[in-house]
Design a protein that fits this description.
Strand order of the largest sheet: 3-6-7
Structural class: alpha+beta
Strand content: 25-35%
Largest sheet: 3 strands, antiparallel
Distance between the termini: 28 Å
Radius of gyration: 14 Å
Number of helices: 1
Length: 92
């Protein structure tokens, strides 16, 4: 993973994280926000890609039907897959 520089994420105050060069700042911020939100409020059985966060990863898949997700987590007997796409508004 190519690393850019350490930055502080507003949703994780006091923690400096390294943003991979392949992620936009918005994608990086949202990914950190959603992992934090899910882990602390929904499920601690979570897996995520692209970033190194202080939340333990569980061995649940990030890939389903040939598509990779940014985040997956378990709720009940289901696995939820989340992919974050950040696109310039004028390109939609």
């Amino acid at each position: 993973m190519a690393i850019n520089k350490k930055i502080v994420i507003s949703t994780l105050p006091g923690i400096k994280l390294e943003k991979p060069k392949n992620l936009t700042p918005e994608h990086f911020e949202l990914l950190c926000f959603f992992v934090n939100l899910i882990y602390n409020n929904i499920s601690q059985i979570i897996n995520y890609d692209h970033v190194d966060l202080p939340f333990p990863k569980s061995p649940i898949p990030l890939k389903w039907q040939g598509k990779y997700a940014d985040i997956s987590f378990k709720t009940g007997n289901k696995i939820v897959f989340i992919n974050i796409d950040v696109v310039d508004q004028d390109k939609v």
